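Q: Got a minute? One more chain.
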Amino acid sequence: MKVYIKFMKALYFLCFSLWFFTLFSQVPEDETIPHFSNKDYNSENSAQNIYQYIGENIEYPGKAKDNCQSGTVYIQFTIDTLGKVVSDSLLFENYPLLIKSAREVIYQTSGSWKPGTQNGKKVNAKITLPFSFNLRGGGCNTATDYFQYGLGAFEEENYEKAALYFKYALRREPYNADYLYNTSVSYLKMYKIDSACYYADRIHTDSDLNDILFKFCGADSSIFVLVEKMPLFNGAKTNQETQEKLFIHLQKAAKSINAKVKGIVHIRFQVDPSGQAVNPEILKSENEELNKFATQIIKDLPRFIPGTQRGKPVSVQYNVPIKF
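A: Always. Here it is, folded:
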């Protein structure tokens, strides 16, 4: 099996850097997300405020610099109804000193947030942000350096060493699909299937992901997670429009039910070759009644224009949250 270098996959990393901004475009008109501002950062653009605050207030630990520790830390945190930061969770590993510094600056913003709202009422809301620690000069290895070391080790068939170098690269760029893919392939070479599938599952790009998941991770080879032409929903012309229209449709459908209990149901389904939404499967939920409502919402979805792979209609899988 060859090691592939696909530089176009770097676009996926950029998408996550813009995660905060995309939240604004996906919130229905009767909902708002938290807004960050204080006397020094008080523009109407919350994203501008928070990124400026982070840039001016985050500390790069001296010990981390001395040990050439750099990279991007992704943290999801919760803003409560008082505008305070009440909890957080780390998305993927990085250096402990960098994680600690990122968390400290998050909690410094506590109390400077205007809470998110739903139906006019204040609600707890989650936000995900990247925190970048970049070393310039000083003779430290970059993510690209570690990636090249990994490729060299792979060519020498030292797959354990290759995986180690690729993971060092991932500490600096956690969502780089090239690094994820080659880490997965290295583990496959060592017959460490669970580790290979862990890294492959973090890629959402081309057919290489499908190959790994189908051949080694028990995925159904007739169901794709990404295809050359993704399904289109409700008049959408692009995959991005489909995601936005689907999100809004699901939330309106849930709201029209007027369920007695509140909660979020995470559900998986496929858009089959005819464009029909089929096989709804509950992934995470805390209420059986909401499960029934969510399942029915998926079954009642209008027909999609089906996705195609190599010119043929195929089944494409979606995982979506439905908020009641």
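A: The chain has twelve helices and 13 strands.
Q: Perfect, thanks.
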